[in-house]
Specification:
By secondary structure, the protein is α+β, with helices and mostly antiparallel strands. The C terminus is likely disordered.
């Protein structure tokens, strides 16, 4: 058993988790062990599901045919029942993604499929559909000297009234090879494969990793467009964007119904009341990333200064950069 920290939790794990920060002498909040799980995925006759799940308020079961079973219970326990001879690094993919996100949800956090960095003492979040460039945008800002808070799984603490707080995750980016080069200037060949046949690489963060929760300053919903533009979203559109990018929305009616659905909707409402959500559209040209990152930095400076709107043109590219509110 090894001890780690992630998302402000002390984790005692039977499975080595090199992506997390090792920790000694920290109280255990979460245990991860290997054992038999007395649950079987519901299947129709002759049906062999590759992935299925069953989620209730305090307990969740997951099954991947090439991995095995996982159980998450009451935000304190994860049990893994792997198939014979499965690689540990394959088990860590869902464990540090869907499984950990479920555990954080059970602990009362709003959990988004997003990436987050710290800029001038506040957290910013990038969310969007799969492949929209969340990790790439966060890595670009990290490469410009800002701190990583969390990549892929972002947990937001809304327990206290006031500003939502973004919880520090663990120090790693998951990036496509071209993003490794364009955002950080690294040689992706030197970075470990997350799994055989998995295109993304794991990029460890050895410096500038947030060590405490930070107040949420702004949320950016990413999209594509011919020029880079920023505009504030109508509260209803912002609300729907949060719902669409929450991990728990993946489980649909199994979880988000009745009291659970109401609690989830209240969390999303509590986030957008004090925090603006913006639509950031930009070309997907990798050479433009620095200019788009600069746009975000300048936008945040104007937010801090209380300026409600501005527009500008880039001097480094032929693209117009502007903000509309």
């Amino acid at each position: 058993m090894s001890n780690y920290t992630a998302y402000g939790l002390g984790i005692n794990s039977a499975l080595p988790l090199p992506e997390l920060q090792a920790s000694a002498g920290v109280a255990t909040d979460v245990s991860i062990r290997v054992g038999r799980i007395d649950w079987s995925p519901a299947q129709k006759a002759g049906d062999e599901e590759e992935f299925c799940f069953e989620v209730t308020k305090h307990e969740a079961h997951f099954f991947w045919s090439h991995l095995g079973k996982f159980r998450v219970r009451r935000g304190t326990e994860i049990v893994i029942d792997p198939i014979p001879d499965v690689e540990e690094r394959l088990l860590r993919l869902p464990l540090l993604g869907t499984i950990l996100a479920t555990l954080l949800h059970q602990r009362g956090y709003l959990v988004l499929h997003a990436s987050s960095v710290a800029i001038d003492g506040g957290a910013v979040i990038f969310l969007g559909n799969k492949g929209s460039g969340k990790s790439t945008m966060a890595a670009t800002l990290y490469g410009r000297g800002h701190q990583l808070i969390s990549d892929d799984v972002v947990a937001i603490d809304l327990h206290e009234l006031g500003t939502p707080m973004v919880i520090q995750g663990f120090p790693q980016f998951k990036l496509y090879p071209e993003a490794v080069v364009s955002s950080l200037g690294d040689d992706y060949e030197t970075l470990p494969e997350l799994a055989e046949g998995y295109e993304k690489r794991g990029r460890p963060v050895t410096e500038r990793f947030a060590q405490q929760p930070l107040p949420l300053k702004s949320v950016y919903a990413l999209g594509g467009g011919p020029v880079a533009t920023l505009k504030v979203l109508d509260p209803q559109v912002a609300f729907l964007s949060l719902i669409a990018n929450s991990y728990m929305s993946r489980f649909g009616k199994q979880l988000l119904h009745g009291a659970e659905a109401s609690a989830h909707l209240r969390q999303c409402t509590r986030l957008i009341n004090p925090v603006p959500v913006y639509r950031l559209e930009r070309p997907r040209d990798l050479p433009l990333l620095p200019a788009i990152a600069q746009l975000v930095e300048e936008h945040l400076q104007h937010i801090d200064a209380g300026v409600q709107g501005y527009s500008q043109s880039s001097t480094s590219t032929s693209q117009e950069l502007g903000i509309c509110q």
